[in-house]
Amino acid sequence: MAKQRNRRKVRRRDRKGGPGSGRRKPCPYCRDKVAQVDYKDIGSLRRMISDRGKIRSRRITGACRRHQSQIARAVKRARELALLPYVAEGRDDRERDDRGRDRR
């Protein structure tokens, strides 16, 4: 008679990792126990905006709901005080038409 394996069945929700898994990375601010996002911390705020100057979503940044709203507020405040740019820099105007769209 063949010997049976004593393998514990793993439920779907208990699996970890893998591409497309539902496992979220922890919020960088909750992990460091930061209560309030500081608008003067330009280094961390630059990671939260895209190269075009848009505020990245929670799915990309990994921030929780509370800290994501604080990030958005801090980025807007830093833009107002000219600590962060409103739009990306460096694209040449010759590559765009009169409406601001990319030429093809």
Query: Helicity level, as a percent range?
Result: 25-40%
Number of DSSP E strands: 0
Question: What is the count of helical runs?
Answer: 4
Uncertain segments: none
Structural class by secondary-structure content: mainly alpha
Profile the largest sheet: none
State which percent range the strand residues make up.
under 5%
Q: What is the CATH level 1 assignment of the domain at 25-89?
A: Few Secondary Structures
Q: What is the end-to-end distance?
A: 71 Å
Oligomer: single chain
Task: State the order of secondary-structure elements, H for helix, E for strand.
Answer: HHHH
CATH-derived topology of the domain at 25-89:
30s Ribosomal Protein S18
Shape: elongated
CATH superfamily assignment of the domain at 25-89?
Ribosomal protein S18
Q: Mean of the pLDDT scores?
A: 83
Radius of gyration: 22 Å
| Known CATH architecture of the domain at 25-89 | Irregular
Structure report:
It contains four helices and no strands. It has 104 residues and is an all-alpha fold. It has a domain of 65 residues: 30s Ribosomal Protein S18 (Irregular).
Features of the shown structure:
30s Ribosomal Protein S18, 4 helices
In short:
With 104 residues, the protein is an all-alpha fold.
List the helices and strands and how they pair.
Blueprint: H1 28-31, H2 42-47, H3 58-61, H4 65-80
